[in-house]
Write a structure and sequence with these properties.
The protein is of the alpha+beta class and 89 residues long. It has one domain (5-88). It has 3 helices and 2 strands; from the N terminus they run ααββα. The protein has helices at residues 5-32, 37-43, 72-88, and strands spanning 45-56, 61-71. Strands 1-2 form a two-stranded antiparallel ribbon. α1 (5-32) packs antiparallel against α2 and α1 runs antiparallel to α3 (72-88). The longest helix has 28 residues, at 5-32. 12% of the residues are buried. The model has no long low-confidence stretch (mean pLDDT 85).
Length: 89
Amino acid sequence: MSLTRKSVKMIVLSILLGIAVGTLVGDLLGLILPEGIPRDVLTYAKSFTLEPVTLNLLVFSITFGVSIKFNLLGILGIFIMIQLLKWSW
């Protein structure tokens, strides 16, 4: 099966959604779980950032930047979303 433009968009959207939901669940578990190793493992997050770039037009300026933060549950969220995507096709 060839990938169409719509399917590539769906894959990227699913991966980003998996990261977002997994990281959110990890942060919420961090609030609930008591201090200890399980909490540290589930809430440890790594952030990847592209430095902001400013486009200065004389009338206004625009700043672009991207930062993605995910943890162990974010990776699990990616895996689950990919499995759901494979199942739905």
